[in-house]
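ESCALATION

Customer reports they have been waiting on this structure for their group meeting. Please prioritize. Original submission:
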Amino acid sequence: MRDAPPARAVLLDVDGVLLDSAASHRRVWDTWAIRKGLDPEAVWPLTFGRRPEDTVRAAAPALDAADERRALDALLATEGDAVPPVPGAGGLLAALEAARVPWALVTSGGRAAVPARFVAAGLPLPLVRVHGEDVVRGKPAPDCYALAAARLGVPPDACVAVEDAPAGAEAARAAGCHVIGLTTAYGAEALPAAHTHAASHTEVRAALSALGVLPGPGLNPAKGPASMTG
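Update from on-call: job pushed to the front of the queue and completed.
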């Protein structure tokens, strides 16, 4: 097997990686589930990393996914844009900008909510953003990551993806990216598609340094430096 090319770009999930939107999304999904006579505790795990319409199909196949997506978008709009950034997210993006590393957002979230929430959180927006509406198949299919890499003009196997959900990590790996699993929502054992794991954005930056994407000393060897192969 040939060696992968050096890492040249970073592809970032949004919810749970850059925006701490769990509380807001939980309120939306709990409200929707109760209105539909569903168990919120059963619905919530189906939402992680997936487009709303895909969650609807999994939770309530008899419902019209497109209609329910519109209802969910309306509920999300009532939450407003004040969603805090994940600790360290601003520093990570600043480091990418300072090093002139191409980066993009790859999210199952919609175009309507993400830009305003980034502005409210004080985070920069990249030129390349792939949303759930941009692909036929959502995560865990690789389409969104393949599209983001194509829009950046970088091969997927020269991209590093940062994901916190199993569906997203599977999507990025299937596209050919090197995957850093951020273990703030799930433990490492729940993210087997990730090549390496990080417990915080400090560790994400160290992993990117070890891959040569960012300047710096990289991961402590005791934690196992990341590799673009495998």
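Sent to customer with the following note: Strands lie at 9-12, 103-106, 129-130, 159-163, 178-182, 196-198.
Escalation resolved.
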